Give the backbone structure.
Amino acid sequence: KEVNFNVLRFDIISFIKKYWTSGDKKIRSRIYVFLACLSISVFLWLMIKLSLESSSDIDLPVAYNNLPENKILINKPDSILYLRIRSKGFKLFSDKYFKDFNTFSLDLRNLKLKSRNAKYYAYIQTTYLKKRLRRELNIAAELLSVSPDTLFFEFLDVVHKKVPVKLDFEYSFKKQHFLYDTIQIEPDSVIITGPLELLNTISFVETLKTNLNEISEDQTFNLDINTENIDQNISLSKDNVEVYLDVEEFTEAEVEVPIETIRDVKEITLRTFPDKVKITYLVALKDYKRVEPAMFSAYVSYKSSSGNKSSKLKVHIKQNPKFTKITKIQPEKVEFIIHK
């Protein structure tokens, strides 16, 4: 007849609870004796079991270091080694539960590679690792086997490529504030390393999207490169860039200059009405005093406007200081007469 141990355990616990709380000292003393005998029996059983030989498994994390020169690992070899050990219970219990096994490191630098279809292949038979495993892990038990029995590796040649960094960056300024110079990125390009077939798909890398609003002063900050869509077999020389914004407060100013007439048709001479134009521009406050009217010039061209049916010529800016931003030309077009 089968014994239901779960029911039996519940009955024993119920029995102990019932009579322990009954207040009968005689019954309590008998329960003490029962528990003492039970404890001794369990202890003796445990000692007998631990004195016998048995086997068990240990899970050992493994890491792969020092890849063959100019090669990249493209497959995923096993990350866990399963060690089957055998010993008497005391040693087995100690090896399995009281040892803190660190990650086992495998050096792949001297692997013997075989080439096939632009790829390189190699393997390690874990049987040959048994002595090293016992020595480095200080296992007292007998090491029966290591699983898997073979570790397979697949490599590709590593190549390098320089690609520009693009900013995924939106910004706005406070009123009358603008960039004084172009946005500076350091570095403005990175070296990507990986298999040729993967590198051929990348022409640039981009930063993580960033927004800055109401900028009114110089800004320096770091932006991480977005690697979400970059294959894990590709590495970057840098994973972030430093961005610098040179920001200045600008003011609006005006200057009036004569309109030059470009004589691009030899037979004619032009005369414009009016003969001057007002140029409105923005300039940084620190450069305001540097501006002189002679730095600006405007012109009209009969030839460039000859295809236009309008009776007016468009005014063009011939020159202006690099540190100014033209916002308005007044008038934009002028009337003219032709002298032959």
In short: The mean pLDDT is 84. Helices lie at 5-20, 25-51, 89-97, 130-137, 196-199, 302-305. The longest helix spans residues 25-51.
